[in-house]
Fold these 4 entries.
Entry 1:
Amino acid sequence: MSDSDVRPLVAGNWKMHGLKAGLDQALKVRDAVSAAGFAAPVDVMICPPATLVMVLGELAGGGRLLVGGQDCHTAAQGAHTGDVSAEMLKDAGATAVIVGHSERRADHGEMDRHVRDKAAAANRAGLSAIVCIGETAGQRAADLTLDVVRRQLENSVPDGATAANTIIAYEPVWAIGTGLTPTADDVETVHGAIRVALVQRFGEDGARMRILYGGSVKPDNARELMSIDNVNGALVGGASLKADDFLRIVGAYGT
Ligand code: PGA
């Protein structure tokens, strides 16, 4: 199994950004990736805030632009004020949901076991789970990166994960929103270790599961980052808010 057999994904995580007026950027992306001349072998997704998932789902209309959520509850429905279920996201037009982003782990105390249950909930609803893992600056300084990433992977990914229903996003916490990125060698080492762990646990599915890199992916560094072994796409925060920047990152895979 070579890397080129895995179809990459470039996903934009809008975080808590985006009013209706900002949808023009998503429409620009939709139109660019739907154009007849766009033949790049890459999936393209935008994960807007929950308030915009349904409208973007309708605007995307099942075409080439995929729509994702940013979090989901573990239950399908119930007395959980303010939460959104994976079934609701699916109903709104999403095909995937991010779970375990470091901002949710930090802001909402989410632990690996919560993340695993959310990923399983996503799969139950027919969504792909984009499971985020990554070390903090302190853990990196203490040389714990591979330990942390392996432990998060083991405990955050449910046993039922397949190449079709699960995507891993390696996002060093210190690289998110900072403009800092690991060296290409470091990314290769971590993604290689993730691949080994996935193959050990999931066999052929582990070999084909997509491993995204996230953390300060920009138009200027996308080509280098996306060319690293076992990097099968990107999870993009800040640079996904502007269609031109996001499309230049997608363009790392040709157009
Ligand atoms: P960033 O965010 O691209 O703004 O660093 C990435 C993420 O948090 O998914």
Entry 2:
Amino acid sequence: MKALILAGGMGTRLRPLTNTRPKHLLPIANRPHIEHVFDLLQRHGVDEVVLLTSYLAEAFETTVGQAASRGLAVHVTHEEEPLGTAGALRNAEEFASDGTFLVFNGDVLMDIDLGEVLEFHRDRGAEATIVLTPVDDPSAYGVVPTEQGGRVLGFIEKPPRDEATTNLINAGIYVLEPSVLERIPRGEVWSAERQLFPGLVEEGARLFAVAAESYWMDIGTPEKFLQANLDALSGRYRDAQLPELTGGSLIGEGAKIDGDAQVSSASIGEDAEIEAGAVVEESVLMPRAVVEAGAIVRRSILGEASIASKDATLIGITLEDNTKT
Ligand code: GDD
Ligand code: MG
């Protein structure tokens, strides 16, 4: 079975980190996020994926180039202008016309049993199945009320807070039959959430949804991206390839940490540096970031080769690549 991965969004909410890379390549426990999606798929026997790219597509080359060595075949489609979450699927139809396929929002970190979802899809004879996950504030997501048995009653993308009738939201994982693609106009910008799914509900198509209880996080904001990293360190998100931690932190190759620095619950990228007397807690340091002597960094994200200067205090800050506070 193939999986199509939507990876062409601009990652606006993660600027400035996404000025230079798509969010899908930001590190989770020191590995590009997209590789965690690959892990999940391969664990479930999916060894062929189609990466649907647009924004900063060339940045995926390294990861795609390395995929073969892990036994994964990766095809890449490119949208000159982003075609939207459904238009992107239609644009990849040549890869998705030979049977049931999976679709993933490529910015979701999760550990879900795909086998159960596929079984549900087949049992219901569904044309499309949406995976749901519970969240505290559904207004930031696609809200999907269902009937008992899972038939979808509606799809309301990002409703006002008081209009969400359930806290079960679209997890951004779908099982689709090729016939669904025929509902998407070719070469047009088309949204899965605002056009395709509401249209399927309206025409009474066999659209179902199934809730998953497993770990799930959309990494699309700085807070969530940071939380996903903390969850990988704490084991809330189980990263089978997580290297051994040092005092609860992940220390990348070549990173230098002064014996007189305090580091806890941090993901420290390759060749990063933490000087004497510095404190780094619940933070992500991307490769070559520097925390100078006496600086305090808490719940912050330091971009590549950025510098938290001597004695600075950074709390809840995102520092752009190559900049200094
Ligand atoms: N190829 C391509 N082309 N990919 C796109 C495009 C496009 O035009 N637009 C967005 N994407 C990709 C993004 O890169 C991301 O991986 C995914 O599609 C979802 O887009 P986001 O911009 O992250 O959407 P969201 O987080 O606001 O909402 C979506 O995800 C929620 C779950 O995290 C929706 O699907 C919601 O309904 C859902 O609840
Ligand atoms: Mg998202």
Entry 3:
Amino acid sequence: MLAIGMYKGKPGAHKLDLPKPEITKPDEVLIKVKQAGVDGTDFNMIKHNLQDPAEGQDKIVMGHEMVGVVEAVGNDVKTIAVGDTVVLTVRRGCGICQPCLHNQSDMCMTGLYTERGIHKKDGFFTEYIVDQEQYAIKVPNDVADMAVFTEPLSIAEKGVEQIRLIQSRMPWACEHPNHSFDSQDWGKCKTALVVGAGPLGILATALLRLADVFTYVVDIVQEDSPKVHLVKHMGANYIDGRGKSAKELVDFCCTPTDNLDIVFEASGAAVTAVELINYMSRSSIYVMTGIPRQEIRTELDAAQLVRQIVRNNQVVVGSVNSNRSHFEMALKHIPQIEKRFSGMLKEMITHRFGLADHDRIFDLSDTSRLKTVIDITG
Ligand code: BGC
Ligand code: ZN
């Protein structure tokens, strides 16, 4: 069967021909992959030649976003049946730490986890996958069409969850008690700045707007770009960040009396990401999700940074990966996003390819892409 992967010491994406996997344990499921999503991590793996196969292997199958249909199940599988549409989580826990032992490998404390398609475990750019039942999540019928967005949306879900969990320290964030961060209507009377209008920034914006957060999105593309169309379609405001300093970005969205409650960093632009900390509002939260890959140095006034974080009760929190609960949240939100911002997920898919198109998928000179989906028909 066809797959796309990376070889140790051989830059670029390569076509692989692999044997079809088989169920060998009673708790396993065999899944025929229907669609796989390509994201910034995949592009960074190619661009920065980051291949990380399992110990003793010379290659890794790429891909960590998928949706597929179950073709066979082991004897002990109870929650999933042949014919079900499913998505798979990405991380496989270390088996040692308490978070991993309690289905929270996204918070692994040893770092000894693996990630399918990224870190020491083969991924999903292939025709068939075998995995354990515990990592497969059944997709409701009304979501199947857009379920390839479940994994990237789950990353945004975890980020928003962190914001709500941490800011529930402050029930009186605004004058309405039923608008506190842990209430149903938490987003009303809150303002957010999303940095980066790539797939993650757009999906985070969708969740914030679904909760009625007043949202600004900054990127470095011109107003007539498809990204900006999507931002506006969700009722968010676009800030063209080209040539603007971090201070100018924040001045654009928030006056001193207009609190910036949330910053959601989804660009990985390290210098801006750090500089923005200086312009956080009092008692606000900043969640970082973008992962910079190169060394980037900058100068900053360390004393000022520490002083203002302390004096203003600010929280800067990193958020990586996601667990089953975030996938479940994403599956619940996909139809809501589709309903409220009709057609937006479909509009996000700018490029579609097959598994045989590995060269075109990773054409790094094409900057027009937002979401790339691989349709796997074979
Ligand atoms: C994936 C996460 C993963 C992270 C770091 C992201 O692209 O969506 O699941 O944890 O990369 O490897
Ligand atoms: Zn762990």
Entry 4:
Amino acid sequence: MCGIVGYIGPKEAYPILIKGLKRLEYRGYDSAGVALLNGDLTILKKEGKVSDLEMHAEGKNKTGTVGIGHTRWATHGVPSDLNAHPHVSNSAQLAIIHNGIIENYASLKTELVKRGYTFKSDTDTEVLMNLIEDIKKEEEVDIEEALRIALNEVVGAYAIVVIDKANPDKIIAARKGSPLVIGIGDKEFYVASDASPIVEFTKEVVYLNDEEFAVLHRNGDMEIKDLGNITKTPYIQKLEMDLETIEKGGYDTFMLKEIYEQPKVIGDALRGRMNAKEGWIKLGGVSEFATRINNAERLIIGACGTSWHSGLIAEYVIEELARVPVEVEYASEFRYRNPIVTSKDVMIAISQSGETADTLAAIEIAKERQALIFGICNVIGSSISRVSHAGAYTHAGPEIGVASTKAFSTQVAILMLMALQLAQKKGSISASRLRQILYELEEIPKKIEEALTLNDEIERIAAKYFEAENFLYLGRGINFPVALEGALKLKEISYIHAEGYPAAEMKHGPIALIDENMPVLFIATNKSAHEKIVSNIQEVKARKGKVIAVINHADEVIEGLADDVIRVPETEELLSPLVSIVPLQLLSYHIALMRNCNVDQPRNLAKSVTVE
Ligand code: M6R
């Protein structure tokens, strides 16, 4: 949440900051701003998108070879010009950008007000800025020492970058609980929430650890210390990201591009990790811990949102194949009870970003109680991947659309491999069944390609339903999480109220909602529950509901009942979510476009939820 970017070096900072903010805009987009040092401290900030900031900056002084920029997802204070970052200290000497939340900002503010400080915004960030200034003045220390002392006083999460008008040859960056990466160029540094603003300039990066701060000097020197003032040796890594992976590549939106990337990225996720012909699976992280995972009393899956839905699919698959008990927990709830977790449990934490605050907090609890943590993340080097004992990357490449699509399908593919590897190790699956599933898994990219050819047909269906105010998504068994995910996609980007339910639960309540205005989408690809699903469809039709059904080729029974059908290729039932989710992603996409919604940056949302 919130995107931050900074630059110091020989180049003009403004164009670098603006380009970086556009790449980070998926993290928050209610206001944006930059601060530049050019003998003076120039602040340009504006409510709205980065493009609004650019218009606001037209004709104004934008010079300076050191600067910081921010795109905001509001926490404290409404989106407005005043609450936009950067925030400036009372003396107008210091400027800060911040991603995160300072929890004890109210008490700090009270103290600062007593000492004569005034505040222009409602933000916690302005409080932190003035706390640093106050310490700098009172203790007569340099800016980095003031920042270090201040950060020892604050409670909460932050990634910050600070510049000082009196010290134009350095910028200071610090993190705790919010990501921050430093790009190293030739006598220049870039700082950002993720590598996307950096990748076109350098591939050499340092990921700052929690409770560390970096002082980046114009002469190319970099010092990293922890908050106890102990010097740290920077660990320089090579970025594996390419520029084209973070651009739209000819598509109108990132979401559409990412939906269409699914065949490729699933292939990437599986490559080198399985071979159907030879009957092997080798997911690096699982190999080492397979015995411990298989002997676990429970696998606790902790995740949020879409990642929680892939966890629900994993529950079906792991229990079916590896026969290990699985519980799927909302990480955001798990942390607020006193869960029973022991050293015999394993937590599988699933997260696209690897930065979700709730999932990190759930991991912390499970880790304290000695559970093994297995992280499944997309973003390489992310916090969750670093705090896990073992794990696997999904290799979906950068996912920029706020609504998760390719990250979901690669998570499901990886969890499938994990289940198969555990089952093979345990001997709970026959060699022939294992091969059969592996062969089907290899075919999945082609089947998704085929599902993608339905795009025009789905657009036609979208045109029939885009004015609906409500939607029900129903599925049985492994298709229940698919129903949840389909409903989440629709509500996130089209703002239509949508509910996902197990189809059998309909009669226990949701059936009361059904009338001629209620579209009900059935995911009806499971052979095992076909008759039951047909009965549920009959029940909806009997109450004049409109039925859209996702079916396999040649399902005459459902075709005869439904108002609209979407025919996806048939596959092994345990793998079917990978194919049946595709038309649901496309349907929500087209409905959102028809309602004039911004599919990549839906209102109120942010890609990476780094606040509680
Ligand atoms: O990065 P994570 O997978 O941990 O994110 C979890 C959720 O915030 C995320 O899946 C969210 O629900 C998406 N907007 C879904 O499209």
